[in-house]
Amino acid sequence: MRKYLLGTGIIGALTSGWSLLKGSDAQPFTWRVALAWISWGISFALSIGMILDIRKASRGGAVAEDSPIAGREDRFVKSSAAARK
Question: What is the mean pLDDT of the chain?
Answer without folding.
Answer: 80
